[in-house]
Design goal:
The chain has 121 residues and is mainly α. It has 2 domains: 81 residues, Four Helix Bundle (Hemerythrin (Met), subunit A) (Up-down Bundle), CATH 1.20.120; 38 residues, no CATH class. The protein has 4 helices and no strands.
Length: 121
């Protein structure tokens, strides 16, 4: 992979990271605190608590993605980005464009999923 492609992926990952962090800050600033005295009845309170809980669960999922993004950026900086951690082959650009945080080529990912399915059965 050439430097131009690596820069494109780094910009994409940094933008996604910044978006996640911005959403997290917004959640903390706007949704983290509500005054129960402002809510006229129990239904409003329950609805607000549900919405707040959902927002925090979404942010928790994003925290996991944020970790993957940081690792992908580190792989770019260490010249390891786009190399399958399982077989050592290059991951296709098309796959990286669809899932830039991936660490496995499509063949190894499919094999991993088959193994996971066999454990579930």
């Amino acid at each position: 992979m050439n430097k131009k492609e690596l820069e494109k992926f780094k910009k994409m990952l940094v933008l996604e990271r910044d978006t996640i962090l911005k959403k997290a800050r917004k959640t903390l600033d706007e949704e983290a605190v509500f005054d129960t005295d402002d809510l006229p009845d129990d239904m409003d309170k329950a609805s607000t608590e549900y919405t707040q809980s959902l927002a925090f669960r979404l942010r928790d999922r994003e925290k996991f993605l944020l970790s993957k993004i940081e690792k992908a950026i580190a792989r770019i900086e260490n010249d390891e980005f786009g190399i399958c951690e399982s077989c050592g082959e290059e991951i296709s650009i098309k796959r990286l464009e669809a899932r830039p945080v991936t660490t496995l080529c499509i063949k190894c990912k499919e094999e991993q999923e088959k193994k996971e399915k066999s454990f579930e059965a």
